[in-house]
From TrEMBL:
One of its GO terms (molecular function) is transmembrane signaling receptor activity. It comes from Magallana gigas. The lineage of its organism: Eukaryota, Metazoa, Spiralia, Lophotrochozoa, Mollusca. Keywords: Cell membrane, Ion channel, Ion transport, Membrane, Nucleus, Ribonucleoprotein, Ribosome biogenesis, RNA-binding, Signal, Transmembrane, Transmembrane helix, Transport. One of its GO terms (biological process) is ribosome biogenesis. It is found in: Cell membrane; Membrane; Nucleus, Nucleolus. It holds the Pfam family Ribosomal_S4. Residues 108-170 form the RNA-binding S4 domain. Belongs to the universal ribosomal protein uS4 family. This is U3 small nucleolar ribonucleoprotein protein IMP3. It is a multi-pass membrane protein.
Length: 567
């Protein structure tokens, strides 16, 4: 039994004639549409018609008499037109017109030319740029991907003035231009680009062009060159001059004690084997492929890790050779190096990060980067919040000592908040065996929060002699059991307890520490149950001691650590 066709099978059946599908040439058409990312099928149909007309016209011109002057004129005009449109490579004969097809027109589409000029990586991305209005051909903005670029207009395909992509391209080109990377270089057969300065003449001879002369020169220089042999110095050892231009610095990772930077490493040396003598040529600038065939310094970074050299779109290397054999090489590098840091004064420290260069057969070079850390971030994220949390813990000194839940909850909340801030800040630091300046501040803040809770414990135990509602104390049963043990030698205080309660806070605090439950019982008996508990002297004293001592700590802390930063 034959099953029923599915939806996609029915849809396919409507579009394709399976009986004559080979004659319809449908597969080739789909392949061309996909290869050149042609979104409209009508464009491909137009290209087929145009290519058919061109072939028919060429066929009619061929049928004319060879001696007919009109044939020569028509042939010249047709080939000139096809060459200017970019459909043929040369103007040798009408046989080239027979090879014009739909693909010839597709190769002249604007997205294809953009990919060819390295303005986009894929045809899909190029089509998106065009439809968004980022591309102009000459003075006109083009938004149609089907626009055909003639041979004369190839050099005028660029970004629009208001395009955001153009700004990124200009920023990148400015970076390259500072190191004299000449991106627009002449193409040669063996090497990608070369640039001759100063170009005083386009030809050295009647037959050979400048390009051919330079190609022959390079082939002759490298014919007997051995890149495994180090060049000899003029007056002794080979001198390699090295300098570095740092483009950007960062990020600096304290947890791994590393830093990264982007720089141009420039080196120059002299190689007698690369001397040349060409008229009107003083130096030749070559591509990075030339480095594979000559000797170059094997420089590496002793403290480097995971360093890379950008290779987009080509390896960022610049090579220049002078006629006296002097070689100049510049490479763009992204360096990730180790930086041993002493975090005792963190975040008021000033780390010094080294960069050590060396070679297998060369002496080393040391570069030191003196860094300065801005503490504005830490002031807003750590110091100010912790200071306010400590000040918040002092609010309990103004809360009635009978409100035990409020004072205990406030103290516990401030401790947990300070500890949370400390854990967040320690997240990006290595596990060092010593305390940093930030650790000292956080630990002191936790100590003050903890002291506020201990202070209330002393107030609650030593000076709170009545319960919240008045009347007898909750510890009365316990003290009565202790009073029964007088015969066993328990310490007995004088009966003048009312006089002692009027003594100073510190004296009362000391007597409470040395006393026992009988002393507390005598204090409860002498209390005024009608008026309840008065304000504790310990609370009154703490209102002055805690803020004053914390201010003194802050003054000493910043005076001690900032002196290192200022020095």
């Amino acid at each position: 039994m034959v099953r029923r066709l599915r939806f996609h099978e029915k849809k396919l059946l409507k579009k394709v004639d399976f009986i004559s599908w080979e004659v319809d040439n449908n597969l080739h058409e789909v392949k061309i549409l996909k290869k050149y990312y042609i979104q409209k099928r009508e464009d491909y149909t137009k290209y087929n018609k145009l290519s058919r007309h061109v072939r028919e016209l060429a066929r009619k011109v061929k049928e004319l008499d060879v001696k007919d002057p009109f044939r020569a004129e028509a042939t010249s005009q047709l080939l000139e037109k096809l060459y200017n449109m970019g459909l043929v490579e040369t103007k040798r004969g009408l046989e080239l017109a027979d090879n014009v097809n739909a693909s010839s027109f597709c190769r002249r589409r604007l997205p294809v030319m953009m990919v060819k000029n390295h303005m986009a990586q894929t045809l899909k991305a190029a089509t998106t740029f065009i439809e968004q209005g980022h591309i102009r051909v000459g003075p006109e903005v083009v938004k149609d991907p089907a626009f055909l670029v003639t041979r004369n207009m190839e050099d005028f395909v660029t970004w629009t003035d208001t395009s955001a992509i153009k700004k990124h391209v200009l920023d990148y080109n400015e970076m390259i231009r500072t190191d004299r990377f000449h991106l627009h270089l002449f193409a040669i057969e063996k090497y990608l680009w070369f640039y001759i300065c100063p170009p005083r003449s386009n030809r050295f001879s009647d037959d050979l062009t400048l390009r051919e002369n330079v190609t022959i020169l390079l082939d002759n220089l490298l014919q007997t060159y051995d890149k495994s042999v180090r060049p000899a110095g003029r007056d002794g050892p080979l001198v390699i001059k090295t300098n570095m231009l740092v483009r950007s610095m960062g990020p600096i990772t304290e947890s791994e004690m590393t830093y990264s930077l982007q720089c141009y490493l420039r080196q120059s040396w002299h190689d007698e084997r690369l001397k040349f003598d060409l008229p009107n040529v003083t130096e030749v600038t070559l591509s990075n492929t030339f480095l594979k065939d000559i000797w170059k310094p094997n420089t590496y970074f002793l403290n480097g890790r995971l360093s890379t050299q950008p290779n987009i779109t080509v390896p960022n290397v610049f090579v220049r050779i002078r006629k006296d054999g002097s070689i100049y090489m510049s490479r763009r590098l992204t360096i990730n190096a180790k930086c041993p840091m002493n975090l005792l004064d963190y975040p008021m420290d000033a780390p010094v990060c080294p960069l050590l260069l060396a070679g297998w057969t060369q002496s080393g070079l040391e570069v030191y980067f003196h860094l300065k850390r801005h503490i504005g971030f830490f002031m807003l994220q750590t110091y100010l919040p912790c200071t306010l949390i400590v000040c918040l813990s002092w609010v309990s000194f103004w809360i009635n000592r009978d409100a035990a839940p409020a004072r205990v909850l406030l103290g516990v909340t401030t401790i947990l908040s300070t500890a949370a801030v400390g854990l967040i800040q320690r997240d990006g630091l290595p596990r060092v065996p010593y305390a940093t300046a930030l650790d000292v501040f956080l630990n002191v803040c936790i100590f003050y929060n903890l002291a506020a809770i201990i202070q209330y414990s002393a107030v609650n135990y030593f000076t709170k002699i009545l319960p919240k509602e008045g009347g007898a104390s909750d510890d009365e049963d316990e003290t009565e059991n202790v009073l029964n043990e007088d015969q066993n030698g328990v310490l007995d205080w004088n009966s003048t307890i009312g006089k002692e309660t009027q003594t100073g806070c510190m004296i009362l605090f000391c007597r409470c520490l040395l006393g026992n439950f009988r002393f507390r019982y005598n204090m409860v008996k002498s209390a005024d149950a009608a008026n309840g508990n008065s304000v504790s002297s310990i609370d009154i004293l703490s209102r002055y001691i805690f803020p004053l001592s914390f201010c003194l700590f802050q003054a000493f802390y910043w005076a001690w650590y900032l002196r290192f930063k200022l020095s």
